[in-house]
Predict the structure of Helix-turn-helix transcriptional regulator.
Amino acid sequence: MGTKRTRIADDVPDDPNEFLPEMSVLSLDEYLDMQAAIGNRTRFEIVYRLSHTGEMTATELDAVMDVDDSTLHYHLNELRDVGLIEKRVRTERDGDGLYAYYRATVLGDGILEDGVEELLRRERAFLDTYDSSRN
């Protein structure tokens, strides 16, 4: 059984709220809401696709994802609510009749690149380093 750590490292604040810059635009709860949102498989895939392909319409997302239309729109709204994606509406429809486009925000790109994708890169590097089949 592990031991319970009671002392926090010297370079880490005792209170997680102290991680925030003094003039932070977002609260700790808002950052945690973003983390919770990206923790859902469908929402992760939406942010992933938007971050790596640029703008997409709901129709384009629907075509590449295995999710029904109402579920897709629910997740798009959840991601918009926490600030991980944004919706751009054109004043005129394009040739396909589409006028609403979604794209990842800077926060969406950041939480993806420095969060889940970074963990996956670290795991890959670890496995590559300690892969006994390579010897």
